[in-house]
Design goal:
The chain has 290 residues and is of the alpha/beta class. It is built from 11 helices and 7 strands. The chain has a 5-stranded parallel beta sheet, sandwiched between helices. The protein has a two-stranded antiparallel sheet with strand order 3-4. Helix 3 runs parallel beside helix 4 and helix 4 packs across helix 11. The longest helix is centred in the N-terminal third of the chain and has 46 residues.
Length: 290
């Protein structure tokens, strides 16, 4: 009997010791976990970080913004505003009328009214096709003559008059020399060309010629060039193709005269509409550079 009680007492003591050890182990583990959490909180408090998921997500968003902001700032700082606006291409009005009613005059007034003190230079050429515009802008002669050589030669004749070369192949002479593009390198270009022909009734060719002019101008703002389109009467049956090519080539910087201008482009009122549309485009481009 004594042996039985001794065995029972030993068993109870053994179980008690195991329970005590287990509890102590759990307490030690709990204390260790608590101490780890405290250390983590202290570290986060020192670094200003947060442990909540919402605050962590917010911190990540701020990190992304802070990383991208210097790049945007550097890009803006690298691109200053242009010194002026260079308008080159067709001129419909006489020199006297152009001084008062040209779209370039309206454009100048529009910019000033919008708070932009930028000179608008009118380098338009009357009675000259796109080949002549290319030459005046400084496109190499071999390139200009390559276009002319690919065009069929059409001779317009009438009773008692001399034969004249068509505008599709004619290249004007400029006794006073071609444009000095070096003084306009910091100017934003505006192209208005094609009214007098020279592109062989091919909108794709006209777009290529416009690109040649831009390359010759070598402006630092050539990628912001505004292109003014031709009226319905200037494109005939190719209207839809012309609009598609211009829009595909120049995107938002293209002004569709046929769709947006109510009066004839060669009239004072039509010129005023064109100048206003060009002003709106240019102001948007300038604001994007600020």
């Amino acid at each position: 009997m004594k042996k039985i009680w001794a065995a029972v007492i030993c068993a109870i003591l053994f179980v008690g010791i195991e329970v005590f050890a287990y509890g102590a182990g759990r307490r030690e583990k709990s204390v260790a976990v608590l101490q780890s959490q405290v250390r983590t909180q202290n570290i986060l408090a020192e670094t200003g970080e947060s442990t909540s998921e919402e605050e962590t997500d917010h911190a990540e968003e701020e990190t992304v913004y802070q990383e991208s902001e210097p790049e945007a700032t550097a890009s803006s700082a690298a691109r200053s505003l242009p010194m002026g606006i260079l308008c080159i291409g067709d001129e419909f009005l006489t020199r006297q009328d152009a001084a008062e009613h040209s779209y370039t005059v309206v454009l100048q007034a529009y910019l000033e009214a919008a708070g932009w003190q930028l000179p608008v230079v009118n380098e338009g050429i009357g009675q000259s096709g796109s080949l002549s515009i290319m030459k005046y802008a400084g496109v190499p002669d071999e390139i200009v003559h390559q276009y002319a050589a690919s065009h069929p030669i059409v001779i317009a004749t009438s009773s008692g008059s001399m034969a004249q070369e068509s505008f599709e192949t004619a290249i004007s002479e400029f006794p006073d020399g071609i444009l000095d593009v070096s003084q306009y390198k910091e100017y934003l270009p505006v192209l208005f060309m094609g009214y007098y022909g020279g592109w062989n009734k091919s909108p794709e060719e006209l777009a290529d010629q416009q690109k040649e002019v831009l390359q010759a101008l070598d402006s630092n703002y050539g990628d912001l060039c505004v292109v003014i389109g031709l009226a319905t009467g200037d494109t005939g049956q190719m209207r839809e193709e012309y609009e598609r090519v211009m829009e595909d080539t120049w995107g938002e910087r293209y002004i569709s005269v046929a769709r947006e201008v109510e009066n004839p482009a060669a009239s004072n009122s039509g010129q005023a509409e064109i100048g206003t549309l060009a002003g709106g485009k240019i102001v948007s481009l300038l604001e994007a550079l600020e």
